[in-house]
Amino acid sequence: AQSVTQLDSQVPVFEEAPVELRCNYSSSVSVYLFWYVQYPNQGLQLLLKYLSGSTLVKGINGFEAEFNKSQTSFHLRKPSVHISDTAEYFCAVSDMNSGYSTLTFGKGTMLLVSP
Amino acid sequence: KAGVTQTPRYLIKTRGQQVTLSCSPISGHRSVSWYQQTPGQGLQFLFEYFSETQRNKGNFPGRFSGRQFSNSRSEMNVSTLELGDSALYLCASSLGLKGIYNEQFFGPGTRLTVL
To answer: Left if phi > 0, otherwise alpha if psi is -120 to 50, otherwise beta: which for A84?
Structure first.
């Protein structure tokens, strides 16, 4: 079984400031790692994913994340946020070898960008 | 290509009733997964259907059931509704191929309110 912990339920930040949303996971098997974003009254949109290879992955909207296997972390970063980045962000994992794409999610981090 | 569609978008029911939600996957996708999103429990996996067969199931009571049709459209049913079933129900579709990564695409969700 896997579990995902998002350490901050809410992160307030000013526009154009950098931001980091933290994610740690626990798993007895190898996993794929994901970050999703959810805007109000919408479904989930994939921001980026780590499947293998380079531990630094770049996603849409200027976001990037770094996979750290020793610390079992997958923190999301953006060097300069915009008002439009205000949304809820979910970190997720899936078992690489199960044959299924089932996602296990963290509880989410609400990013609040103010002018 | 049209995205994942879910109907209805909003639903209000009373305790004890039953409800059916519908999900139409992206054309060509054969896997449909359902997730429940609540403020308290976050996003939790309900079940996955592939080629009209349930092939993975989360930890939900038997009141939650689903099915998939030959055109890959899926329905989920909740019987004997309880207040705690109030949630956003998300479905996600993917190619569903085993042994490789399959990106899941999410619909906008159905917001169920139980009074």
So the answer is: alpha
> Is residue B101 over pLDDT 90?
no
A9 in Cβ contact with A110 (< 8 Å): yes
Alpha carbon of residue A56 to chain centroid: 13
* Whole-number Å distance between alpha carbons of B111 and B115: 13
Residues paired with residue B13 on neighbouring β-strands, in sequence order = B114
Is A65 within 8 Å of A74 (Cβ atoms)?
yes
Q: What do you get for the CA distance between the two ends of chain A, in Å?
A: 41
Chain B residues closer than 8 Å to A44 by CB: 90, 92, 106
Q: Is B83 helix (H, G, I), strand (E, B) or coil?
A: helix
Chain A residue numbers with beta carbons less than 8 Å from the beta carbon of B56 are 100, 102
Q: Rounded to an integer, what distance in angstroms lies between the CA atom of residue B8 and that of residue B26?
A: 17
Number of CB pairs, chain A paired with chain B, less than 8 A apart: 55
Answer whether A60 touches B (CB < 8 Å): no
Q: Is the pLDDT of residue B97 over 90?
A: no
Does the beta carbon of A104 lie under 8 angstroms from any beta carbon of chain B? yes
Residue B100 confidence (pLDDT): 81
